[in-house]
């Protein structure tokens, strides 16, 4: 099963059988860990410059950060923020971005063919994280650099004081160490596009040596080794096996990256994209556990799904987007998302939750302007893309424990995935507050679907919120000119009666129901 298969016209052959869902309070996947709601800020296009940072903007603070963007980031509810890349990190010298701003060098960023002014670096970004309430997740450069630069960076960020680099941090205004816990050991090192990409053998050895050295400094660091840059890579699976065989004892997570898009007008297959994500997760878990048993290890490696999103990558690759003029912060990868995109997106987030026992952390790639839920205009507005809504609602309502419900739904035929369920769902329940939530998707392009949900285990008495993302025009989008074209609507007709919740899910919709 692969998202790159040629798709033929999809026939939405929906025979809408009654859909019955049962929420079993004992079918616990895992406690909700806020790290599942992470995001990603890369020095790419207008994500940092003219995105989170725009010194001349009317809302900018003394650091040059836009406060209107910070407000939306908080509303989005993202937790951990991965930084500073992505492909960018593989050519990055972190030292360029610290110290007096007027002495920082301008450099070429080969990953995105742009100029990097280094006006935003580690210290500024750490302050931005504090303002947004985010946990900083840092990536080290294993493309052009190696162990020494990684250790230096770790000393700068985490050592309290009294060493050359920790004193440099203090002199730069950060008295307390940042105490960064999660670290990515490079980025997508299997990708031929990656600066300094290498074979699984070479990377596995380098990652192991870097991780071992970093853990000598702090044994409690949480280290993420690079998995394949996508499940369509020819080395997918084998890469994970080889890399983990070298690094298993020193790392805690293996990364997964996946981007989805509608191809060839095949909306039916696109709406079932989460089946591919499920396959991806199961394959990486199987490979990691194979290595665990082979090495007779007691440790279980978790997945850091630290790049996931909708990305119209084919269109970007086909267009002549390379920034030959080497400008600063060009408009790159600025996808505009539709209602259908947001429904698929919401379903991907549900899939991460359904696998939360193994997917312990995730990062929506990315946060602002670059394939992002938040858009900005220089000197002007900031607005929410359609994908903003499923993320913010899920992040706000998903509390306590994730429950995997039993779903009896009809199916439809897709060109890429064969038979796919018309309805998908996941639930959360918080024993401490008695609150629970259901997140649901209807993939049918033609039919509203009545769903009967047995929630008696949740002991709920009232529906506190019922919202849906749906539109007559599945390709409706929010744009600079029409910023509120798409938003959440009331999910009409939801009824809770003696342990049975009934809802009608509109065609091509993502919905959430909160119970108290
Ligand atoms: O998120 C955009 C890019 O996608 C990242 O820089 C890279 O890691 C991935 O290929």
TrEMBL record:
Domain Alpha-L-arabinofuranosidase C-terminal: from-to ranges: 306-509
Entry's EC annotation: 3.2.1.55
Group of enzyme by EC: hydrolase
Ranges in coiled-coil conformation: none
SUPFAM superfamilies associated with the record: (Trans)glycosidases, Glycosyl hydrolase domain
Keyword tags: Carbohydrate metabolism, Glycosidase, Hydrolase
Domain of life: Bacteria
InterPro entries per record: Alpha-L-AF_C, ASD1_cat, GH, Glyco_hydro_b
Catalytically driven reaction(s): Hydrolysis of terminal non-reducing alpha-L-arabinofuranoside residues in alpha-L-arabinosides
Transmembrane segments: none
UniProt subunit comment: Homohexamer; trimer of dimers.
Family: Belongs to the glycosyl hydrolase 51 family.
Protein name: non-reducing end alpha-L-arabinofuranosidase
């Amino acid at each position: 099963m692969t998202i790159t298969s040629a798709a033929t016209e999809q026939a939405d052959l929906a025979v809408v059988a009654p859909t019955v869902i049962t929420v079993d309070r004992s079918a616990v996947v895992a406690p909700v860990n806020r790290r599942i709601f992470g995001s990603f800020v890369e020095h790419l296009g207008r994500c940092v410059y003219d995105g989170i940072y725009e010194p001349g903007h009317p809302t900018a603070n003394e650091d040059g950060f836009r406060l209107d963007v910070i407000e939306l980031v908080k509303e989005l509810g993202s937790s951990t923020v991965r930084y500073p890349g992505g492909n960018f990190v593989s050519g990055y010298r972190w030292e360029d971005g610290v110290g007096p701003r007027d002495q920082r060098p301008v450099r070429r960023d080969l990953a995105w063919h742009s100029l990097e002014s280094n006006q935003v670096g580690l210290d500024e970004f750490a302050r931005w994280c504090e303002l947004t309430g985010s946990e900083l997740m840092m990536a080290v450069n294993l493309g052009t650099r190696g162990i020494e630069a990684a250790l230096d960076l770790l000393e700068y960020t985490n050592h309290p004081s009294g060493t050359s680099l920790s004193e440099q941090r203090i002199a730069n205004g950060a008295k307390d160490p940042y105490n960064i816990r999660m670290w990515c050991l490079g980025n997508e090192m299997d990708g031929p596009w990656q600066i300094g990409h290498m074979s699984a053998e070479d990377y596995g050895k380098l990652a192991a040596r870097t991780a071992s050295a970093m853990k000598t400094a702090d044994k409690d660091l949480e280290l993420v080794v690079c998995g394949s840059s996508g499940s369509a890579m020819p080395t997918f699976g084998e890469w994970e096996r080889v890399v983990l065989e070298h690094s298993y004892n020193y790392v805690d997570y293996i990364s997964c990256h996946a981007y989805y898009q509608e191809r060839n007008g095949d909306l039916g297959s696109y709406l079932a994209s989460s089946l591919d994500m499920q396959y991806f997760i199961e394959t990486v878990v199987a490979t990691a556990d194979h290595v665990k048993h082979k090495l007779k290890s007691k440790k279980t490696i978790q997945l850091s799904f630290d790049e996931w999103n909708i990305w119209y990558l084919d269109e970007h690759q086909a267009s002549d987007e390379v920034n030959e003029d080497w400008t600063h912060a060009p408009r790159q990868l600025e996808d505009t998302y539709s209602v259908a995109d947001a429904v698929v997106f919401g379903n991907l987030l549900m899939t991460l939750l359904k696998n939360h026992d193994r997917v312990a952390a995730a990062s929506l790639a990315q946060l602002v302007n670059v394939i992002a839920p938040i858009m900005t205009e220089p000197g002007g507005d900031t607005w929410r893309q359609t994908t903003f809504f499923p993320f913010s609602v899920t992040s706000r309502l998903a509390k306590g424990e994730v429950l995997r419900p039993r779903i009896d739904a009809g199916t439809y035929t897709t060109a890429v995935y064969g038979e796919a369920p018309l309805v998908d769902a996941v639930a959360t329940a918080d024993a401490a507050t008695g609150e629970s939530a259901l997140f649901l998707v209807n993939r049918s392009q033609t039919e509203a679907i009545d769903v009967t949900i047995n929630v008696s285990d949740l002991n709920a008495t009232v529906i506190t919120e019922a919202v849906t993302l749906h539109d007559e025009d599945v390709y409706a989008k929010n744009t600079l000119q029409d910023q509120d074209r798409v938003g959440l609507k009331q999910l009409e007709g939801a009824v809770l009666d003696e342990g049975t919740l009934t809802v009608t899910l509109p065609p091509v919709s993502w919905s959430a129901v909160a119970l108290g």
